[in-house]
Give the backbone structure.
Amino acid sequence: MNAQVGREKTFRPTGGSFSLHPKSNENGLRLINGCSNEYEDKFNVFPTKNTRKATWSPPGRGKKCQIDHIMIDNRHASSILNVRSFRYAHLDIEHHDSDHYAVGAKIRFRVSNIGRIKSTKQKKYDVAKLKNDTVRAHFNAPSEQQLEVRNGEASWQNCQAAMKQAAEECLGYQQPGKKEWFDDECRNAVQKVIDANKKMRTRARSEELRKLQRDKKELLRERKENLTDSVLMISRNCSP
């Protein structure tokens, strides 16, 4: 294409201010117009020596030209940190020496830092209130109007709406706070692992650390299972 992009202010930001040529040729104008302000020529953005800007040496002439370019869209333009040519790099294209210089770019890939949409945390009913006989009786007594019977079977939508309304009125939602099953024994087990991790560095001590970690996991798992069993027992007692 032999496009030479100049240093004209009119064509910025597509064309930079550090080009080897002061003015663009006809093919350079076509290249700039084809970009439509959506791409940038990063070869002309970074200040460098003229010897590092030339990319082609015409045969039989001492003049150097800059006709190779690195175009990138505006969105990822900041990923390119530097661009330059290498005059003494040997290019062998199909076993023929090329009169073009190698062009290299320093690129940095960055992950987009757009904030993620925060998901709404599901609210949980305070089932611990079912231990109270009065609350449990009120929860098990939905009105007949809410549980509409059709053809001898209750509509699932009506049952679901009735249960939700009864739970909101009688139980309410759990307040954020500490976990009920995480008692002092669990806290001490976790603290032992933290202290051992700071002190132990040898292999023998690391085995002792793994033993403490296993004991901690078993204890926490046991507390969670006990809480789940108690909730299931309350639910069975509340069922009519």
